[in-house]
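hey m, so remember when u said the tokens were messed up on ur end? i reran from scratch. heres the input so u can diff it against urs
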Amino acid sequence: MTRRARVGWLTIAAGVVLLVGAARLSPVWHAPLYDGIPIEDPYRYLEPPPGKPGNPTSVSDTLALDQGASPQLYSGTLETPPQAQMIANRDAFQLPSGTTSIKAAISPIKPPAPVAEGRISGNVYRFSVVNQAGADLSLLPGTTITIVVRAPNGVTNGTIIHFNGTSWDKVPTDNGGLPDLYAVSNATELGDYAVLVTGAQTPEPSAQTPPSFSAGPSPSPAPSSTGGQTPWLIIGLVAAAILVGVLWRTLGDREP
């Protein structure tokens, strides 16, 4: 190998070492951590108790068909987070002949009947999907829809119930992502849904009182996991630079 070739390869090797070291010492070596606390709007009641906000929102979404099938559907009321949501996959609904679009609607309503035990926490919501002519749409056999209902802030011991036309039925309930969000992941019917509380209801914080947080000192940041390796990386980089310089001088003194 000629002197020029040796010098070239040594330069490339030193450059690789420098790049690796620079990347390892970079402050973005570790992915950033984003953390925070979700903020919920105060719950809005259709018939608000004293001191609680009213005027809950409704939603109505009109959607075109997707190649002749009902489109993927997401509808949610306008609070943060929504107090009622429904989610359906594409081709979830039976479509009468002549259907060109569907309309999904969610509205708070007065309870159609009292519950046999416990009490309804928050509003009753009516979920409906119709075509452009106003005909109610049913789910195709074997398909389901997800229904999410939010209870008043801090209510964590609820169960979703569905009105069957004469009385209320409890339905299998999952957590919806926050302590007071409740979900039915495999609902087979639309209609009226609410959150039932049968035990002692968790007290709801006042709408005028912000959540309290600990005022204690912030924890000291943990030392970087690479702190002990940094001096050795610097030493290695310096040694690599010295080695390249020595070899350069040595090879430069030797004529081919």
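this time it looks ok to me. The two ends are 10 Å apart (CA to CA). if urs says something different then somethings off w ur setup not the seq
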